[in-house]
């Protein structure tokens, strides 16, 4: 006969507590992720996690998508919320796991029992050899553009990506795309804009190409003025000269002109594979001219990524995409780059042979604090851990290191751009309400800069304000909020307001009170801005134009969004020629090696023009691949 002590009875009761008190059913909980609340649903059956779903969120596609495809299944598989976070989606991962814990608690389960660390997946020791015509390193905008171009010509392509998703920084960009003479018929030319053109024409030529572009622009301008038109004037030559001037004429003008001549054909290429453009161009922050276009059928830069990927799938193009696979070295045979050595996250090693060549499209080094402070020549080497960045964590300059090992020349590495208007906490641009080229006001309620200026000018002016922060003032009617209450990046406005990073009010006085701005000054500031928008001349900060999306004269509600500059773009990188061929220190082509996008230098000079980055990536990605097309 067995005897039971009080202690043994207590232990038995404790062990049975979970089973007795747990209730089968479906539970929901919400936690704040990167962009707002994430609503999670957990199904409990027989004291186990049967299923986990995301019911609602505003997290960034495709960056956070891996939490659905990998994190959630791992929670169910391991019966634990203590699974590895998804790289690049850490805040989303933490929020989901916290919501799962909440659901377990609601169900009456012992949360500690489901908090044991999941076992790490075993590493593969397999070595795979793949033969292709073209190997591309980096599946962002430049890499996808190159892959589609090469594959459409019948080339077999292997596309490497160290992240668990394709898209790179293109997927988290605003997605604006500068093109001259497209979607500008609704824009009228102002006196201020005329003075800008005439100022460029009056410049002293510094080299033969500069002279050639001025001559072409002068002919175009004379024809325009003789026509009597009041529509906005533009041309690839004006675009090139503005871009070159904005980078203090330090860029390679041949590369700049190659870009501006090819953006319109690239735009047509995108249309041909399913991309839809909005009918009217605008002027985004730092873009200098109303030639900024964006998608009608997508939000932000993810549209380019999804369009390329869908086209690859629909046309069954010969493109093999290896995700979570990092390039470790270039294969060089007989003085020619002939492939890539790579390794997957799960351990599998790859020998990727490229019959035609290798294209580096790995992006810049904006998220590499060590590199940006090593090279920085513009910001006093103060771009440390406390300086946020708009970039993905994966923007660490890997391609620059690979190219350097192969003998590539690097150029203009010291020029790093700060985006003028980023989230003060994360550096992201996804919290904006209205355009970032709307008027800026400091805590005193006053404007202090021409918001259509160069990005470096804006960033310096913004950093000079109290606390290094300022407010973007916009009208709710012009804030780019869709019918579902989401902003231009797909983030819920309700979540943005709840975060305390933006304020909404029916009147300017109320807005100022909520945001902690001097109300009297803000009212007067907006009054003067509205007068300028009505007259079209005489702005106190020297803006040449008031675009429709910047208007504040239609009444409230109004938004004030708190912003600060954040590391955005690294203008320097691998030296290339206009065919996107990589050059060595002697200026000679390195056979078999090409590069495109932010991994390269020489296109932007000391300051990148807003909305030139995506065109740069896509255009030169296409140009690189055209080297293989007969």
UniProtKB/TrEMBL annotation:
EC number: 1.3.99.33
Pfam families, per the entry: FAD_binding_2, FMN_bind
Occurrences of domain FMN-binding (ranges): 33-107
SUPFAM superfamilies assigned to the protein according to its UniProt record, in alphabetical order: FAD/NAD(P)-binding domain, Succinate dehydrogenase/fumarate reductase flavoprotein, catalytic domain
Signal peptide: 1-22
Cofactor: FMN; FAD
Keyword Flavoprotein: yes
Major enzyme class: oxidoreductase
Key words, A-Z: FAD, Flavoprotein, Oxidoreductase, Signal
Source organism, top-level taxon: Bacteria
Single Gene Ontology MF annotation: oxidoreductase activity
Cellular compartments per GO CC: membrane
Catalyzed reactions per annotation: dihydrourocanate + A = urocanate + AH2
Entry's cofactor comment: Binds 1 or 2 FMN covalently per subunit. Binds 1 FAD per subunit.
Family: Belongs to the FAD-dependent oxidoreductase 2 family. FRD/SDH subfamily.
The protein, known as: Urocanate reductase
Taxonomic source organism: Parasutterella muris
Lineage summary: Bacteria, Pseudomonadati, Pseudomonadota, Betaproteobacteria, Burkholderiales
């Amino acid at each position: 006969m067995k005897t039971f002590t009080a202690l043994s009875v207590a232990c038995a009761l404790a062990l049975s507590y979970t089973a007795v008190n747990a209730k089968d059913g479906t539970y929901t909980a919400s936690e704040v992720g990167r962009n707002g609340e994430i609503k999670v649903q957990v199904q409990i059956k027989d004291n186990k996690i049967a299923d986990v779903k995301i019911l609602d969120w505003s997290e960034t596609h495709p960056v956070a998508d891996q939490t659905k495809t990998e994190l959630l299944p791992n929670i169910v598989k391991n019966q634990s919320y203590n699974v590895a976070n998804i790289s690049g989606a850490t805040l989303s991962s933490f929020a989901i796991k916290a919501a799962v814990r909440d659901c377990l608690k609601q169900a009456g389960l012992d949360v500690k029992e489901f908090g044991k660390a999941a076992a790490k997946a075993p590493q593969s020791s397999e070595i795979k050899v793949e033969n292709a015509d073209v190997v591309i390193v980096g599946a962002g905008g430049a890499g996808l553009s190159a892959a589609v171009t090469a594959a459409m010509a019948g080339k077999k392509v292997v596309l490497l990506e160290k992240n668990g998703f394709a898209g790179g920084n293109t997927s988290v960009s605003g997605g604006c795309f500068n093109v001259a003479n497209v979607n500008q018929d609704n824009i009228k030319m102002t006196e201020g804009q005329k003075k800008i053109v005439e100022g460029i024409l009056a410049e002293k030529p510094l080299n033969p190409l500069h002279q050639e572009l001025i001559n072409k622009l002068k002919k175009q301008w004379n024809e325009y003025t003789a026509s009597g038109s009041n529509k906005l004037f533009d041309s690839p030559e004006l675009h090139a000269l503005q871009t070159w001037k904005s980078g203090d004429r330090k860029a390679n003008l041949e590369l700049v002109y190659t870009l501006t001549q090819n953006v319109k054909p690239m735009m047509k290429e995108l249309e041909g594979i399913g991309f839809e453009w909005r009918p009217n161009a605008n002027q985004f922050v730092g873009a200098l001219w109303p030639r900024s276009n964006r998608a009608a059928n997508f939000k932000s830069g993810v549209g380019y990524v999804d369009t390329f990927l869908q086209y690859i799938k629909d046309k069954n193009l010969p493109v093999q995409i290896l995700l979570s696979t990092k390039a470790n070295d270039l294969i060089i045979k007989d003085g020619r780059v002939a492939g890539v050595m790579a390794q997957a996250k799960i351990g599998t090693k790859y020998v990727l042979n490229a019959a035609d060549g290798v294209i580096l499209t790995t992006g810049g080094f904006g998220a590499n604090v060590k590199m940006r402070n090593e090279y920085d020549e513009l910001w006093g080497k103060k771009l440390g851990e406390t300086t946020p960045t708009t970039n993905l964590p994966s923007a660490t300059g890997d391609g620059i290191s690979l190219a350097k090992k192969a003998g590539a020349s690097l150029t203009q590495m010291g020029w790093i751009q700060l985006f003028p208007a980023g989230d003060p906490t994360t550096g992201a641009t996804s919290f904006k309400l209205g355009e970032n080229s709307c008027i800026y006001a400091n805590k005193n309620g006053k404007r202090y800069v021409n918001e259509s200026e160069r990005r470096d000018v804006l960033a310096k002016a913004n950093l000079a304000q109290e606390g290094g922060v300022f407010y973007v003032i916009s009208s709710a009617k012009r804030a780019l909020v869709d019918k579902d209450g989401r902003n231009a990046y797909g983030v819920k406005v309700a979540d943005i307001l709840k975060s305390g990073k933006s304020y909404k009010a029916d009147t300017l006085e109320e807005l100022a009170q909520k945001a902690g701005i001097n109300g009297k000054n803000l009212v007067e500031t907006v009054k003067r801005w509205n007068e300028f928008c009505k007259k079209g001349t005489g702005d106190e900060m020297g803006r040449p134009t008031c675009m429709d999306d910047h208007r504040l004269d239609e009444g409230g509600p109004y938004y004030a969004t708190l912003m600060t500059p954040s590391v955005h773009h690294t203008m320097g990188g691998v030296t290339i020629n206009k065919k996107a061929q990589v050059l060595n220190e002697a200026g000679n082509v390195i056979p078999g090696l090409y590069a495109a996008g932010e991994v390269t230098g020489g296109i932007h000079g000391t300051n990148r023009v807003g909305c030139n980055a995506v065109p740069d990536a896509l255009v030169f990605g296409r140009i690189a691949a055209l080297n293989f097309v007969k």
